[in-house]
Amino acid sequence: MSSIVDHVLVIDDDAVFNRVLCRALKRRGYPVSGVHSGEEALALAAQEQPTMIVLDLNLAGKSGLALVTPLRGLCPDARIVVLTGYASIATAVEAIKLGANQYLAKPVEIDTLLHALSSAPVDPGAKTAIDTPPSMPLSVERMEWEHIQRILLENNCNVSATARALNMHRRTLQRKLGKRPKQL
Amino acid sequence: MSSIVDHVLVIDDDAVFNRVLCRALKRRGYPVSGVHSGEEALALAAQEQPTMIVLDLNLAGKSGLALVTPLRGLCPDARIVVLTGYASIATAVEAIKLGANQYLAKPVEIDTLLHALSSAPVDPGAKTAIDTPPSMPLSVERMEWEHIQRILLENNCNVSATARALNMHRRTLQRKLGKRPKQL
DNA sequence: ATCAGGTTGCGACAATATGCCGCAGGCTGC
DNA sequence: GCAGCCTGCGGCATATTGTCGCAACCTGAT
């Protein structure tokens, strides 16, 4: 199932969250390394060959999305779980396409995260999300968020360009992006 | 780039939406087949070997997610785009994992859908910023309007119910409906 | 090295829009 | 008639935009 040592690499520039997460994982017996930037992440990934990677998407302005491919290259067999407070369908789709194994939104329970980190790479037998279709339609706020995120991705995370494309004011877009998406 | 005939298969149990979508695609020169159930979908997929597939997730109670794998099996080279009015990150992640090429939330502009249907198979390395399609994405206002109208229709034009479904205040919905949609 | 032109983050403030009350009236089925 | 739902609208405190402006970066060209 996994190697003798299941090394975990936590990549999150939020110092507090990073520390809390690392401690929680350690308490459960996993060797953990926490880093705060993409550079550190790649260096450690190459060096320690972690089997599990937790990746935040907002790394000091830069998108953690860009790290998925190189991480996957360095650790072909690791489980990569993207964990972000600014979750959106667009980035989720992108992350999975790039090779991530799971995509979760903060806040998340440690058990959910662990499950995502350790579940078998491909297990068609599990029908978890498959039978969860009839939920509520997206709220207008959520809708707006998803739309913005999609266009933002299309524009390579260029805020000004996105604002122009969306025909809205850059200042307003900034403010909207600063707020966390609301659930449902 | 693509075969001589780019056959499109539209799978959506919403008769109205299905018809509208099919017509829009036909008008753009694509041979289109519209079906309303999973069984029809699989039958037609096997028979016509479509190169593009649009799949709704709410197929009369059953989740279209369960169709992704068999469809992928029948048409290994087709572009499969999941299109749903009840989008969620969980189903998005699942759809991509199962082999879908894109996941979009209704409402969606026909151009966006076409772009998703025809764009090259996932190529993460490509910096596709340059070949941005000339079409402008909908403004957030327009997006909101389309979404509201869709949910309103789903609720038989019941303003109160729509407000609840959208998790917004009835008064605000009323005011929004009072204003006419702005173009672009 | 300097300069033009793009992007970004953010403060400030007036103009709007929203959330949230309440009320009156119109439907329905019992 | 009554209960329960829906609708349209007034009012007002609060929150969110639209708009400016500014300082700080980048990046490529001169």
Oligomer state of the chains in this structure: homodimer
**CATH superfamily (homologous) name of the largest domain in chain A:** Response regulator
Report the CATH architecture of the largest domain in chain A. Answer: 3-Layer(aba) Sandwich
**Helical proportion of chain A, percent range:** 40-55%
Radius of gyration of chain A: 17 Å
- CATH topology heading of the largest domain in chain A: Rossmann fold
Task: State the low-pLDDT regions of chain A, or none.
Answer: 121-127, 129-133
Mean pLDDT of chain A: 85
Look at the structure and give the CATH class of the largest domain in chain A. Answer: Alpha Beta
Number of domains of chain A: 2
Description:
Two copies of one chain form a homodimer. The first copy, chain A, is an alpha/beta fold. Chain A has two domains: 111 residues, 3-Layer(aba) Sandwich (Rossmann fold), CATH 3.40.50.2300; 39 residues, Orthogonal Bundle (Arc Repressor Mutant, subunit A). Helix content of chain A is 46%, strand content 14%. Chain A has eight helices and seven strands; from the N terminus they run βαβαβββαβαβαααα. Chain A binds a DNA duplex (30 and 30 nucleotides) through α7 and α8.
Blueprint (SSEs and pairs):
The structure is a homodimer of 184-residue chains.
Chain A: E1 8-11, H1 15-27, E2 32-35, H2 38-48, E3 52-55, E4 58-59, E5 62-63, H3 65-74, E6 79-84, H4 89-98, E7 102-105, H5 110-118, H6 140-154, H7 159-166, H8 170-178
Parallel strand pairs in A: 1-2, 1-3, 3-6, 6-7
Antiparallel strand pairs in A: 4-5
Helix pairs in contact in A: 2-3, 3-4, 6-7
Chain A binds a DNA duplex (30 and 30 nucleotides) through residues 61, 158-161, 168-172, 174-175.
